[in-house]
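Lab notebook, design round three. We kept the backbone fixed and only want residue identities now. Task for the bench partner: fill in a sequence for the structure below.
Input structure tokens:
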């Protein structure tokens, strides 16, 4: 894809003003969080003639991991995990604009919280999935709250999210990677579920479920992809060899995911939600 480093944890492709983009995390293979020169970045790519190359007219977001995107009230909303190496901390940041070239930050999430995802509901409100961790939340559980506008996406409000009951085992954690509206007004959720074994090896799978925003219930939970669904390749480290980190399911049901923290994978899947995505005009 024309960049220095591994390209992984991508969004699905999307179009704005007739141009096709995707965003992904870019990182050098031999650099880890513990290293002083740890420097992840998020890069937008554009496609021409079937080839993805860095979009040179779009800013690179340094010290940002695991991008996500959506559209709310007709506006492009983008975010990722901003890391602070010197402090050993991170937070989710939110930006908006007409296109990737015009993105401006408008809010941030709580310290040490990843996997915050947004989706616009039929009535214009914004559904938000959060992922508190630590203490009673363990390594991470999914929270849910609704707000009336992007202005209400604040640390205070995000911390009010209620935990979603999803039969999570004691040694497991999970988080939402993407959310899309369904024709019924329910939410199609793409998530990950993970464990770590006694040797320190991490195990991640991609999951999906349908979420009822009023009843706050989970239906049709399933595992839709594992590491074995993608070709062999060296992971960033041995303990990441069984890791996939899903990014998004496209409207034509391709799953885009990171694999082993070194490359991006794409898998054609059957519609896991048993109803179709809702598309706003």
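Proposed sequence:
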């Amino acid at each position: 894809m024309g960049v220095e480093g591994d390209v992984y944890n991508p969004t699905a492709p999307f179009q704005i003003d007739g141009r096709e983009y995707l965003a992904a995390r870019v990182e050098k293979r031999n650099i880890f969080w513990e290293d002083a020169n740890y420097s992840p970045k998020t890069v937008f790519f554009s496609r021409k003639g079937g080839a993805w190359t860095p979009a040179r007219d779009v800013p690179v977001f340094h010290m940002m991991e695991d991008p996500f995107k959506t559209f709310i009230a007709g506006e492009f909303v983008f975010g990722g995990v901003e890391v602070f190496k010197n402090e050993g901390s991170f937070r989710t940041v939110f930006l908006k604009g007409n296109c990737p070239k015009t993105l401006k930050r408008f809010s941030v999430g709580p310290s040490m919280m990843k996997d915050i995802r947004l989706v616009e509901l039929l009535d214009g409100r914004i559904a938000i999935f959060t992922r508190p961790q630590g203490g009673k939340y363990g390594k991470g559980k999914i929270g849910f709250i609704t707000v009336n506008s992007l202005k209400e996406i604040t640390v205070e409000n995000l911390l009010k999210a209620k935990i979603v009951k999803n039969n999570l085992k004691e040694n497991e954690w999970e988080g939402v990677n993407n959310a899309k509206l369904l024709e019924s007004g329910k939410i199609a959720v793409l998530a990950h579920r993970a464990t770590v074994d006694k040797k320190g090896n991490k195990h991640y799978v991609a999951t999906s479920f349908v979420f009822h925003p009023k009843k706050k219930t989970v239906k049709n939970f399933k595992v839709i992809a594992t590491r074995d669904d993608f070709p062999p390749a060296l992971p960033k480290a041995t303990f990441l060899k069984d890791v996939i980190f899903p990014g998004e399911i496209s409207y034509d049901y391709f799953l885009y995911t990171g694999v082993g923290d070194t490359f991006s994978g794409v898998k054609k899947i059957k519609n896991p939600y048993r109803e179709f995505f809702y598309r706003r005009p």
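Keep this in mind before ordering anything: The two ends are 31 Å apart (CA to CA).
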